[in-house]
Amino acid sequence: MPYSHPQPVDRREAYRKIRHLLPGAAAFAGTAGYVNSVGLGFFLTPVSHMTGAVSHLGIDLAQGLWSDAWASLSIVLGFLAGAALAGIIVGAWQLIPNRRYGVALMVEGALLALATFLLITKQRLGLAAVAMACGLQNGTGSSYCGLIIRTTHVTGTMTDIGVMLGHWVRHRQIEWWKLRFLLTLVLAFGVGGWIGALANHHFGPMCLSLAAVGCTLAGGIFWFITHRGLVDLMQEASPQPPRTSSFPGS
Known about the structure:
Elements (H helix, E strand, L loop, with lengths): L10 H33 L6 H14 L2 H24 L9 H22 L4 H16 L2 E2 L2 E2 L6 H15 L6 H28 L4 H30 L13
Antiparallel strand pairs: 1-2
């Protein structure tokens, strides 16, 4: 994917930049954990990462559970389609916040709203919609300050944390800001999963609507803010007409 190319790291500016990125990344990770718990409660198959889904697909095929196999396959294909959609909407090789990220968030909210309706009516096609929303979210993240940001799963994040800790044990210098960033993502994903499990226990798939509304509102606000910012920049950059005096002879 085009999002897997790390950007050059300016270590003097990295920590300052990462402070602004951390709240959004943590919110993304928490949302993914929340959504994944709801998906697990419905079908016992993860929807925010594909390792478990592909494994379930193999098990279903081996046991001849064709209906379950189709559902597992729809999750895999839905995630792939969502990632492709991110490439179409965002189309960026590096994280440059603009209106397209707001659009991607609003589309994610719409997908989660569709999934809510489908799952409430006991249609497994809702799993594909949830997975597509997760793929879209994962695809909108990008490389930033030397990090490969993935917010819908924590396998790679835990690997990076383990490698950094191993370097620390070997008395090698590590970037502590990066370690704190990765730990925050893992914590946010876990907390989101815990909240999602509680919500699913009490309200069932209806609780997905909370994530749908949250993503839609966040995307709309982000789009509005960045749109206004771009408009202001365009106004500042546009040439101003020369002033004329109303006094004769001036």
